[in-house]
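Please fill in the sequence for the structure shown.

STRUCTURE ENCODING:
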């Protein structure tokens, strides 16, 4: 594949008619942090534009950056976000109590550093991770969570089924949006899933993106922005069926969906009701409203930061997130405004944010430098971070929550 391909047809339904939603301009890749000695080298930028399929409703980007560029070496390590450890340990409990008998196989696609598979293995499941990032697969394997360093597809699925048997559960958390060829995903699931097995996936929910103006979660890794309607259409195509949904507060609002082979499980009332409640997402109005609110959000954030600086307050940032990089670039915030960003991930520390070149510093620097105001770029963890950084608040610091409209916490 070339570095960049444009999307001619909807990856769920094949339609070629799209309506624009929001154009964020040419942006660097959100997880490609820059080494300071390479700062003079040109940084590739790619168009970042969101459109909606007029036939099935899938919101999607207009381009696909090669997954080899984005995912082979990946800066995002789940276990450095403590709330994710809690979240996925709870999911392990739920999978074990409802779908996975002792000794049966769970395969996770995009298993990262093993944050879900480790507690599943501890609870008696057989586990196998499929993880394209070499650095993360190595971390998982070193910790005893068997992980194949591959992109999932029909070939890998067939091999896993032949070597391990078929899976009671295939799990894919925060990866469906990364996958361009969803047909290949369905073929792989078909080859690997037991007849009565379940496919479980968590994805950020388009409804929450729109209503909370989470425009910063738009970046090149996220090819698709899912609502239930397009997901139902997708599984139908694969002779499967979407059967249940639950909303989750994680990542600014997500859904956990359950799918099974067609006819194997009953469609829940919750899913039926949620699908009905999505009727407006097939019209233009909520998207036009969203685009207006994005512009207002940028103005409010810039206005608040200007006002804080005018009153003599020093600024910093917290959470070197991918979404933060969309936000910083779109709002035109560089090191002259946010001089550094504190983060827990050792791999990101010492590097510069893509495009805006703000230094990422160890988390402890927040207290050492003690900015009066800290832009919270990991706003999805606001509650946990306020609790974890009580020391900063006690010393008189305050966080700025950037969306939907910037405000001091
Ligand atoms: P997340 O919102 O999951 O990121 P993304 O937008 O990239 O999907 O946040 C993960 C980043 O935030 C990661 O670099 C670790 C950092 N982080 C902290 O520094 N402190 C914290 O308490 C948490 C929860 C995350
Ligand atoms: Zn479509």
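FILLED IN BY: designer on duty
SEQUENCE:
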């Amino acid at each position: 594949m070339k570095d960049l391909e444009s999307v001619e047809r909807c990856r769920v339904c094949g339609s070629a008619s799209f309506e624009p939603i929001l154009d964020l301009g040419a942006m660097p890749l959100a997880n490609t942090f820059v080494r300071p000695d390479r700062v003079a080298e040109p940084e590739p930028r790619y168009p970042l534009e969101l459109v909606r399929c007029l036939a099935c409703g899938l919101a999607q980007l207009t381009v696909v950056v090669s997954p080899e560029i984005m995912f082979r070496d990946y800066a995002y390590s789940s276990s450095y976000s403590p709330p994710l450890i809690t979240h996925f340990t709870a999911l392990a409990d739920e999978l074990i109590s409802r779908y996975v008998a002792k000794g049966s196989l769970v395969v996770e696609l995009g298993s990262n550093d093993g944050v879900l598979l480790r507690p599943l293995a501890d609870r008696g499941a057989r586990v196998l991770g499929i993880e394209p990032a070499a650095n993360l697969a190595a971390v998982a394997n070193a910790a005893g969570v068997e992980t194949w360093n591959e992109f999932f597809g029909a070939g890998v699925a067939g091999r896993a089924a032949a070597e391990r048997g078929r899976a009671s559960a295939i799990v894919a958390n925060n990866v469906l949006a990364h996958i361009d060829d969803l047909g290949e995903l369905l073929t792989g699931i078909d080859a690997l899933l037991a007849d009565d097995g379940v496919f479980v996936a968590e994805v950020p929910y388009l409804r929450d993106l729109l209503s909370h103006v989470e425009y910063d979660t738009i970046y090149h890794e996220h090819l698709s922005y899912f609502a239930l309607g397009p997901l139902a259409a997708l599984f139908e195509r694969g002779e499967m069926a979407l059967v249940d949904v639950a909303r989750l507060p994680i990542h600014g609002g997500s859904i956990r969906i359950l799918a099974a082979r067609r006819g194997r499980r009953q469609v829940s009332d919750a899913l039926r009701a949620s699908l009905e409640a999505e009727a407006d997402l097939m019209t233009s109005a909520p998207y036009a409203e969203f685009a207006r609110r994005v512009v207002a959000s940028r103005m409010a954030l810039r206005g608040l930061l200007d006002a804080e600086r005018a009153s003599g307050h020093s600024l910093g940032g917290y959470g070197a997130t991918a979404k933060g990089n969309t936000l910083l670039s779109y709002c035109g915030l560089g090191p002259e405004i946010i001089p550094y960003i504190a983060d827990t991930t050792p791999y990101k520390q010492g590097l510069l944010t893509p495009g805006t070149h703000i230094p990422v510093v160890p988390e402890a620097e927040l207290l050492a430098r003690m900015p009066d105001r800290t832009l919270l770029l990991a706003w999805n963890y606001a509650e946990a971070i306020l609790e974890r950084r009580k020391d900063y608040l006690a010393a008189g610091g305050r966080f700025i929550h950037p969306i939907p409209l910037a405000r001091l916490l």
